[in-house]
Amino acid sequence: MAVPARGPLFFMDPFVLRQFRGPRGISMDPDAFLHELHQRHASSTNGLTLVDGYAPFCKHVFVDNFADVPAGQCRIDAQNRRHLRSGYVVRQPGELPVLSRWFLSADVRVPRCARLDVILYAREQLVKEHVSRGESDAEMRLPRAPYGVVSIKAQDVDHELPMQPITAMRNALGVEEGGSGVALDRDAYVRSVAYWQDHVVVLDVDPDGP
Fold it and tell me: How many Cα atoms occupy the beta-carbon half-sphere of 112 within 13 Å?
C-alpha cells in the first residue's frame, strides 16, 4: 500500500553511509542527498509516496537518479562470468558472516540507471537493531524523523527488486545476527532466487571477511 508522505520524514542511518565511500560511492555529500530528498518531498503536490516494503517497518521512495548513483548490480553473461568472485562476507562488525558473490567494478561494464529506490526503515526498528549491536544510546542518538535511509539503489524500474536470498535468510536470523527479525517468506525467497541466479552485486573492492 502506498502512503502519502508530508513533512521532513527522513534521516541517514549510519549503515547507509558506506555507500558514499570509495571510487564508485555516491558523489553527493550525505547531507546534500538528504536535503535534495526533502526538497523533492516538499515540492511534490502530495509529497513523495512511501511504498510498502517487505515488512511493516520498511518503505520505499522511488525518485529520479538525481545523484548519478552507479548501478550496484549487473546481469551475469558469457563474457563476464569468469570474473565472478565469492567468499564469506560481513557488512558491519558483529554480523554473522554469510556466503556471497560479487563482481569488482574494474572487471565489468556497469550500466547507468535512471531511477533510485531509496529504502527506509522506521526509526523504532533502527533503534532496535542498533541496541542489538550494543549501542545502548541509540534511542537518544538517532534523529527523531520517522524514517531512516538504510540503502540507496540505482535501477530502471519504479518497484522493489528482489532482495538477495542471503539477505532474506540473514533477516530471518534476527537482529542479534545483523538481520531485521522478519520471518522467511518462501514465495518471496523463490522469486529472489530466480532473479539473483542471473544477477550479482558490483563492488569497488573485495568486501570484509570474517
Answer: 7
